Amino acid sequence: MAVRNLSAALQEIAERELFETPEKLNDGLVYIRDWLQKQPHLNARTDDQFLTTFLRGCKFSLHRTQEKLDYYYTSKTILTELYSNRDPYDPEIQELLKAGVILPLPNTLTESTPRIILLHLTGMNPDKVSFLQFQKLQLMIYEILLQEDDRIVTAGVDIWTELKNTNHGYATQITPTSLKKFNSVLHRGYPIRMKSVYCTNCPPIAESLFNLMKSILNEKIRNRMGVFSGSDEFYKKLPKKLHPIDFGGENGKLSELQEFWKGKVESYRDWFLEDTQYGTKEELRVGIPKTSATLFGVEGTFRKLAVD
């Protein structure tokens, strides 16, 4: 399978910031595919496009690529609460898709700036859908973006969480352990360049959780995180024209984005069902088998996560 050509702007980023060259890409694909075939515990996708996202996400460090791929597939095996039953037609996932709670926005500031992903939690109801299902869908959409959007591994992503009128009942479902597991998987397992994390209209209880999340990340990403109560201050970080039309911007209408992403996730049903075959067989791992404890540490301890 051929690797998609990057746009000129993204190719420049790949070469300047990720140290990509045709030789590194070709040699890296050969090396990583050969390495995967020699790992008795790993059953992984090996197509060129998939492996290229990991090489780029690790700036072509072969060792980091090996670590990230292993973490990605080990997490899929161990964290059944996030990776089992990823059928888009599952009733809880359908509830979230209809509410439009996770919406990658279509426009970016320039050809070389990050993709904006809006987490619009207003429509979520804790009596119908658990926060765990929201995390599951978030990872599902990241996987679709890894398949289709080269921007998220080159220019990166800005995550914008909008919490106006959000049901506070979710606060009781979020624990330090669940936050740690999700952030560990996202930052250590997915080849996504996290550029900024914003929270707007954040109630005090959510701000406490936001600060807890900051405590497990390294200084580099902590400096890219911010809570905003006023529009003018936030516009300096994310210009108004990049906001959805419903928020006074020019970046898509929420109802249309919801309909688009509902259809997009549903179109990946076969992919998600087929993806269940990939993962690890820990009994075949050379060395000590991985468990939830070895992967995420004991409850109550936090290792700072490195983010590009």
Automatic annotation (TrEMBL):
It comes from the Eukaryota. GO terms for molecular function: phosphatidylinositol bisphosphate binding. Residues 90-255 form the CRAL-TRIO domain. Gene3D superfamilies: CRAL-TRIO lipid binding domain, N-terminal domain of phosphatidylinositol transfer protein sec14p. InterPro entries: CRAL-TRIO_dom, CRAL-TRIO_dom_sf, CRAL/TRIO_N_dom_sf. It holds the Pfam family CRAL_TRIO. GO terms for cellular component: membrane. This is CRAL-TRIO domain-containing protein. It comes from Photinus pyralis (Common eastern firefly).
